[in-house]
Amino acid sequence: MAAGCCGTKKQKLNNSSSVPCNGSVLQNGTQIRNSVIVKPEMGFFCFDVLYCQLHQLDPPKPPNFSNEAFPLFVTWTIGKDMRLRGCIGTFNAMQLHAGLREYATTSAFKDSRFNPITRDELPRLHVSVSILRHFEDGVDYLDWEVGVHGIRIEFHNEKGNKRTATYLPDVATEQGWDQIQTIDSLLHKGGYKGLVTPDIRRSVKLTRYQSEKVTYTSDMNNFIAQ
């Protein structure tokens, strides 16, 4: 199951296999550190996959990095301001070679919020790979830390329908939200249209998780990681 994580646009979520999200990056110059799974080669691989798709070439050869199975997201941004261009991921654990190949193209061409990425945009693109780990059930809607955890919530909307929504770990920090603001935004993003009350917040089932992330910025030939 996948979920969107956009911090700037409201996105209706359901139980489909892949749903858009919003990626983000650290400031230029941050060194890769504390990375167990994510590797710079994953960014290269996503670019190779996209290049081959755009130029109708055979897909790239299998990469050399780990092929373990993890939930993952691929985010495309563009320009110096790294404006979101497409992001889709999955909470299903996928083998990394197949998962990155699939979501590099899905996020580039099938994010319903954006037109498909074109050849002309290639020189200005950046790609972020997020590998999700350490999933834990929260005791309540406040059992997570801003800037450390991504959160995924389950709740029922006004009609009693079960809905889900997620933000990756860096969304709340980027938006300047505290925990309650993040939960309220996530409820609305997931389709809750009414007034968010303390009782509604307490009814949320929360799962927290962490991510390893690397960003390849093609125009700067640089990697930045979280």
From TrEMBL:
Matches recorded under NCBIfam families: TIGR00296 family protein
Protein name: AMMECR1 domain-containing protein
PANTHER family in alphabetical order: AMME SYNDROME CANDIDATE GENE 1 PROTEIN (PTHR13016:SF0), AMMECR1 HOMOLOG (PTHR13016)
Alphabetical list of Gene3D superfamilies matching this protein: Hypothetical protein ph0010, domain 1
Domain AMMECR1: 31-225
Pfam families reported for this sequence: AMMECR1
Family annotation (InterPro entries): AMMECR1, AMMECR1_dom_sf, AMMECR1_domain, AMMECR1_N
